[in-house]
Amino acid sequence: GMTAYSSLKIIGQPKAGETIFISAASGAVGQIVGQISKKLGLRVVGSAGSDQKVEYLLKELKFDAAFNYKKGSIVENLRAAAPEGVDIYYENVGGETLEAALEVMNTNGRIVACGMISTYNTTNPYGVPNLFHFVAKRLTMRGFIVSDFVEECAADFAKDMGSWLAKGEIIYKEDIADGIDSAPDAFVGMLQGKNFGKQVVKIADL
Q: Domain map of the chain by residue range?
């Protein structure tokens, strides 16, 4: 939760009425970013890798729009989902999805670089060809590690997230693999996008 909360607030600089696009939106961080964004008055668009995940985003997390990035053109799907453009891109994927987001970003848009999972296990890194949008649209992109923001955000995070959780206003999905022997397959599956929610390995019952 701290990862989602702090990076969205500090790097994303969200303003009510803006549009945020979240890649890997049903994943560990994405699902929380989406729900916080709704609470801040943003229009929330997400991408995910299956129709089941898209349905979860729309029906359970109440995203305004979502699409399966494996079906059709990512940039065309994003344009359809965000007809007024994207002000904040919460980046979890990289590669073609980053390229598509740059095409649809509005002037002075902000990109929160949380991860780039599409590039973690490839021998041929994807070269994003449209980086000139950073100049023409005056975009900013910033990476981070959550510890960067703990001191600045800890008090507000505890207050806001504590209240939301107490009221049942934040929901969370985990994909639980059973036993330590399942850890390697669970890890590889996470990198391949096979998990649905935060990937967890259950070691023992407490």
A: 2-147, 173-206
